[in-house]
Amino acid sequence: MSLKFASESQNARILSVGAYRPPRVVPNSEIIGRIDSTDEWIQQRTGIQTRHIADSSQSLVDMATIAAEQAITRAGLTASDIDAVIFATISYPYQAPSAATEILIRIGNTKAAAFDISAACAGFCYGVGIANDMVRNKTANNVLVIGAEKLSDFTDPDDRATAFIFADGAGAVVIGKSQDVGIGPTIWGASAETREAILLEPSYLDYKNNPGKTDLGWPNISQQGQTVFRWAVYEIAPIALKALTAAGLSVDQLAAFIPHQANERIIDSLAKSMKLPDTVAIARDIRTTGNTSAASIPLAMDALLAQRPDLHGQSALLVGFGAGLVYAGQVVELPPAPKI
Ligand code: UT7
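Above: the input record for the complex with oxa(dethia)-CoA. Below: its predicted structure, written as tokens.
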């Protein structure tokens, strides 16, 4: 039996990008005292010079709303044009209701579809892939994809393995209809056998099931840095190249590479393994933004377009990877220059 509806598809693209970085800039010198480190070590091992950290009065959703509203305005739309909100994050402190529904309240459109996804540093690319499928299949015409994190709430300032790397920020894109194909196939997957390499624990249930155990501590991210580093360096370049091939492009035809901003050494290693020519602009937002997990790719996209406005409308390869371990990548046409 076939159902009685027209099943033709439409093309999708990124219409706009918005970004928000909290105003407080934290240099390495403010972090090193508690973890017996140096500015030199952090810069050499990660590329990070400074990062933005939100203060206690500024929530994850406060930051995400500013990025989202900027993306909606830059797309020439209003909140009522948004059919669905996908919020990628690992730092929203509630299981339910979702952060995405809080965004609906903030932007003043309480009727759109809304849900969160937990795919850590790959979350934004997961969201772009899902939004692309939604627009292509006419499940939605305009989808707001947000990647935002307040990782400072879940990072132990005394943990030598994480305190220097994670930071706060929010990015958002609107994905909508397009005449041409503006988003290539998403290549995604997991290496779940290594899921313990990055953890955010203890969980709510650890507290409930261990009454009286007072030394469980606050839920913080822990990371086996070298394990994740090696996985990223060896596994992610072939995934990124697969996304490029799936979009029908070669490295020479690519204008920009915007990988997850985890560590500048990982970015360099990916670019080298993929043999990217010098003509490809590489996002290095990590230097002044740190690792903002789900927010890092839209933040890096916004920063790259601000530095290189000629890249508006050009092709960019995105690839996200992180806790799970999970990954996702796709080629996108960067958004056009905003009219406003
Ligand atoms: O975003 C989600 C995905 N996450 C990632 O992709 C992160 C991937 N991992 C990394 O980026 C890196 O592993 C880190 C930047 C986290 C750590 O860098 P590393 O080069 O892997 O450091 P390491 O743990 O191998 O330690 C190397 C040395 C050790 O000293 P010895 O044994 O060689 O004398 C450590 O004791 O650096 C020392 N060290 C530090 N020194 C100063 C470790 N942490 C620090 C520190 N400050 N914070």
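Notes for the reader.
The CA atoms of residues 199 and 222 lie 5 Å apart.
The pocket of oxa(dethia)-CoA is lined by residues 35, 37, 41, 45-46, 121, 160, 164-165, 225-226, 228-229, 232, 262-263, 266, 291, 293, 322 (CB under 6 Å).
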